[in-house]
């Protein structure tokens, strides 16, 4: 597979669409957490925007695409603000915050993992580099969001809800299938794998091992 031979127009369009949808989903996720924490409108918008652009900022820095794209194209920030405001408005009407938060969080995770993987492939990264960039793209914003909301980042302890592992697996699939299938199909398969792993882990079918100390028993 020649990872350097990318159809750049298709790649750029695909990355932009994935970014915008992922930003909106992550912004809603962050906003809903802010509503649950009883943040005011400003706090909810800040948390939503940080959730939305945090992972992409890390990805852009790692791939040399600086300054981050949201500073060069304000469409990304407007989409993030729109998602956060929507989350603020509809959040109080949602009875099951955890489930709703998980849905949007999973959507953002899947889309950012795929877009990060495509960015790494475009720069000729190997499989480990692509997996790392894809995973950090997906989990970066969520880590910042959780820290600002005084939550332990899910990526560190939720073995029953695969997070970074799911993002890395999706990125690896994108790397493995790129050049063998149409770009859109590769993106959809990678994102679908992330969603599937998250769904299976939430139901206890797939989980990571935890090392327990004798004193824990």
Note down, in words, how this protein is organized.
- One of its GO terms (cellular component) is plasma membrane.
- It is found in: Cell membrane.
- Keywords: Cell membrane, Membrane, Transmembrane, Transmembrane helix.
- The chain has 217 residues and is an all-alpha fold.
- It has one domain (8-207).
- 72% of the residues lie in helices and 0% in strands.
- The chain contains nine helices and no strands.
Which percent bin holds the helix content?
Answer: over 70%
Distance separating the two termini = 49 Å
* Overall 3D form: globular
Estimate the mean pLDDT confidence.
81
Largest sheet: none
Category from helices, strands and their pairing: mainly alpha
Count of distinct structural domains: 1
Number of helices: 9
- Beta fraction: under 5%
**SSE topology string:** HHHHHHHHH
Flag low-confidence runs. Answer: 1-6
Number of strands: 0
CA radius of gyration is 17 Å
Q: What is the element layout, followed by pairings?
A:
Elements: H1 8-36, H2 41-62, H3 69-72, H4 75-90, H5 97-122, H6 127-148, H7 154-157, H8 164-177, H9 183-202
Summarize this entry quickly:
By secondary structure, the protein is mainly α. The chain has helices spanning 8-36, 41-62, 69-72, 75-90, 97-122, 127-148, 154-157, 164-177, 183-202.
Pick out its properties.
mainly alpha; 0% strand; 217 residues; globular; 9 helices
